[in-house]
Amino acid sequence: MFESEKIRNIAIIAHIDHGKTTLLDALLKQSKVFHEKAITSERMMDSYDQERERGITIFAKHTSINYKDYKVNIIDTPGHSDFAGEVERVLGMVNSVLLLVDAKEGPMPQTRFVLKKSLEMNLKPIVILNKIDRPNCDPTRVLNEVFDLFVELNATDDQLDFAYCYASGVNGFAIKNLEDEKKDLTPLMELIIEKVPAPSGDIKNPFLMQISTIDWDDYIGRGACGRILQGKVSKNEMINHINKDGVKKSFKVVKIQGHLGLEKVELETAAVGDIIVIYGCDDVTIGDVICNENNKIILDPIKIAQPTLSIDIMVNSSPFAGTEGKNLTMNKIKDRLLKEKRANVTLSIDIQEGVIDKITVSGRGELHLAVLLEALRRENFEFSVSKPKVITKEVNSEIHEPIELAHIEVPEEYSGTIISELGIRKGEMTFLNTDEKGITKMDFLIPTRGIMGCQNDFLTLTKGLIIMTSMFDHYGAYKGFIPKRSKGVLISIGDGEANGYACFNLQKRGTLFVKHSDKVYEGMIVGENARENDLIVNVTKAKQLTNVRAAGKDENIILTPPKVFTLEQAINYIEDDELVEITPKNIRLRKKYLTENDRKRKKL
User: Is the pLDDT of residue 602 over 50?
Assistant: First the structure.
């Protein structure tokens, strides 16, 4: 057990893809927590399968390393704005943050968000100008931009006097000055020991801890994770749980868990400054307090970021229901979502009384929701999903909707097109600058409704040269009508298998979502119409065969590869009268229903 003076608690925060997890890899390797012959992988902290596949951090994770006679607890945080709720909560467990900024790109929207939260909590960040090994990087310019951002966010004089260093996570070195020898990460570790304050609190006072995150163990239930603010706690000790309503309940500490490297270690005793997980109380949640019965301190509640988007999850009612998945019923879907709710409190899961055909799930963005849907899919669930809807609020008898801050970088020749498109979507420009290399940087405040699903359109308009990120900024007055999808869809009129001959003839009508031999059914969306109206088509139609020999050779059939949707793209693409059918093997789009007039339309 380390004395609190020898403990340093830090979180690594940054914009997405600025190198947090890669730098943490290097810290773990150089701290010698692994055996000399141990085989390690890249992005070791990204243990969740979707994190590795998507290349992003989704959940905040804890680790600790030993340096000299110090223990350094480190929290790796997500960089994507949809998972910002993870960042907000863990900042209460640390005494400082490492703010990583790409030495080429400079501060980005998520950089602003995480830095603002840190400054509001009176933390004094250590700035790391990362990726200085990249060509065309400009660490001096970026350092000035970071300082300007501190000033803009009303940092105190003490916070403005921040420590900084230069680093390359992928090459495993840090330097205090650009001309220093590039050797290892010792300069960064020395900076952490010197500049990060030790945890406050007295070990002699009654035990006190506030819950910042929730863990789950299939054998012993819910775990409460946080930093011990004062006192100490031991296994099998009786302590109190106080919820947000002030209701007190005593429970026995079943297990205390800490971290060392990538391993979870069981502890007999933990004391002030330690970041631990305590098991034994199943109804604990974020913001609750666990403490000794003699504790008299009252802590302010932790606020959880409110969701901005919601979707309805329903039983799959398509003709293919039950052919590809095992978990089909609403009861199984409900049980799985309730299990998710135990550990993932950033998602809001609303099971309304009397409503038996859908469950409403709310989150901070399409990616946030898509991660849950993909997890269900991989667990052999089969279900349908509605179009995401923004969650509005009523303020002074006026409807308010979520507004996002969008940051865009695009070659100058495409800037006018993007400005026009965002204007149609009710975007308001707040910043515009074109650098000497012809790259235009723009910031827009735009309704979430306006930015949903536009990324693919913008990639097409700019030939793939746009960089676009956005994050929730605030709730603002409802902006009125925003144009929906500009093109209709091609809808299958019958059941069967898509035929190459029919696909070939339909290519001139638009973009297909199916290929030859794919199974289709009546009402399934098989493509996008080139025009704005929906069109009923027969994608199973085969070429008529006769016993008359053709005078010339048949025309060769050349099929264009179909458009394949990811989960995020699919839920963004559909309209209110459409659904996404999600199974372990396929993602299909379909109409909720076909009217009799639809069926009477001409079949192609």
Answer: no
What is the number of residues in the chain? Answer: 604
What's the confidence (pLDDT) of residue 375?
87
Sign of CA dihedral 589, 594, 600, 601: negative
**What is the average pLDDT value for the chain, to the nearest integer?**
83
- Shared domain for 260 and 180, answered yes or no, is no
- Report which secondary-structure segment, H or E, holds 552: none
Other C-beta atoms closer than 10 Å to the C-beta of 408 total 25
Same domain, 87 and 170: yes
Asked whether the beta carbons of 337 and 349 are under 8 A apart, the reply is yes
3-state secondary structure of 50: helix
Return the structure tokens found at 434: 């074109």
**At 541, which CATH number?**
2.40.50.250
Residue 358 lies in a domain: no
How many Å separate Cα 213 from the centre of its chain?
16
Determine the pLDDT at residue 341. 78
Same domain (yes/no): 142, 53: yes
Q: Give the CB-side neighbour count of residue 443, counting CA atoms within 13 A.
A: 13
Q: What is the pLDDT of residues 398-454, one digit of tens each?
A: 999 999 888 888 898 988 999 998 999 999 999 898 888 888 888 899 999 888 878
Q: What is the pLDDT of residues 499-553, one digit of tens each?
A: 888 888 888 888 999 888 889 999 999 999 998 888 999 998 888 776 655 555 5
Q: 421, exposed or middle or buried, with CB in 10 Å at 0-12, 13-18, 19+?
A: middle
For residues 549-567, average pLDDT:
73
Scored b (16 or more CB within 10 A) or e, 196-228 reads bebbebeeebbbbbbbbbbbeeeeebbbbbbbb
- Is the pLDDT assigned to residue 339 strictly greater than 50? yes
What is the residue-wise DSSP string for 256-270? EEEEETTEEEEESEE
Q: How far apart are CA 170 and CA 589, in angstroms?
A: 41
Residues 20 and 88 in one domain: yes
The answer to whether the beta carbons of residues 585 and 397 sit under 8 Å apart is no
Residue 126 to residues 10, 98, 114, 191, 204, Cα–Cα distance (Å)? 10, 5, 13, 8, 31
- H-helix segments, 102-253: 109-120, 139-152, 157-160, 186-195
Same domain, 418 and 526: no
pLDDT at residue 579 in the model: 92
Query: Among the listed ranges 6-10, 32-36, 422-426, 544-548, which one has the minimum average pLDDT value?
Result: 32-36
Where do the H-state alpha helices sit in 228-358?
330-343
Domain that holds residue 284: 208-291
Q: What CATH number does residue 430 fall under?
A: 3.30.70.240
% of the chain surpassing 90 pLDDT: 13
Give the number of domains in the chain: 4
